[in-house]
Model the fold of this input.
Amino acid sequence: SLRYYGAVGKAQATPLLIVYALIKRPFVLDLQPELSVIKNLTQQGFEVYLLDWIPPTQADTWRGFDAYVNGDVATAVRAVQTHSEAKQISLLGYCFGGLLSTIYTALHPQTVKNFIPLSVPVDMGKQDIAIFNLMKTLDPNLVAGVFGNCPASIMKMAFSAMSPVHHLLNKHVGLHRNRDRAGFAGTFALFERWMNSDVPLAGQIFREVTTDIFRNNLLAQGKLSVGEQRVNLKNIRCPVLNVVGEHDDVVHPQTSLALLELISSRDKQNLVFPAGHIGVVVSSSAQKHIRPQIGSWLKKHDRKPRATRKVPVIVQAAPRNAATLQ
Done:
């Protein structure tokens, strides 16, 4: 589904589509008002659209990069263009969503005005995280053959294994130390709910990402094919702001930093921030520093703000000011 969040005040000319990762639910982007990525961006004057992935069922085992990129992301972009009456969009992709967004931008460059990949895995030849070496030995055909889709339990185990000390110990120590801080326990509980929101990964895309991306590094080498097209990152020519967590223990920083070497954009820059994989999105430091920089960068690459227009609500209202689009 596609969620719409209206801008506060005058809206910027170019709408922003956020493509979230496939392996967890996206409500971490709107966890609490004071930490909400969505609220922050709308208050900066952006019309925000969020691709809210519906977890795959056994009927979706066939879905690979082609279905997600040329099917779902492309359909979402067309819906945003129609709903916002804009010819081009700004695209922000986080983690696995950043991988899908990178592939989409390379295959459909004419629709993307500005691109913001956030903690995106690109060049796995520069990956230095032990769990990915383990993933390279995993037989995705065996997992998909037995289960159809890669179960949520396996996705959760892999995610937790990337930072075992934090998942098993540090977070609880932090909760104890901050037990008297107002609101900390509530935020902790909401965050834990999100951490346990793992969903299955469709069997085919699990095969493709494990084999083609993690093991064979085809994207960085220009050898990845999606549908009947070769993904050439040199086709990315729009302005790019590449956001990287300096202490990312899920997607190694060097894996993400390699992107700018592989694209043709003249207007491109890295924004390296001293945070981990999740901290670049939900931390209070990200709220104070990263999001304003993202907003300023987008405004710099946009036309003058347009007058607020009355946007029709399609289908029915979702929580807060979101409208679910079909």
About this structure: Residues 65-84 form the longest helix (20 residues). The radius of gyration is 19 Å. The chain has 14 helices and ten strands. Residues 164-170, 172-176, 310-326 have pLDDT under 50 and may be disordered.
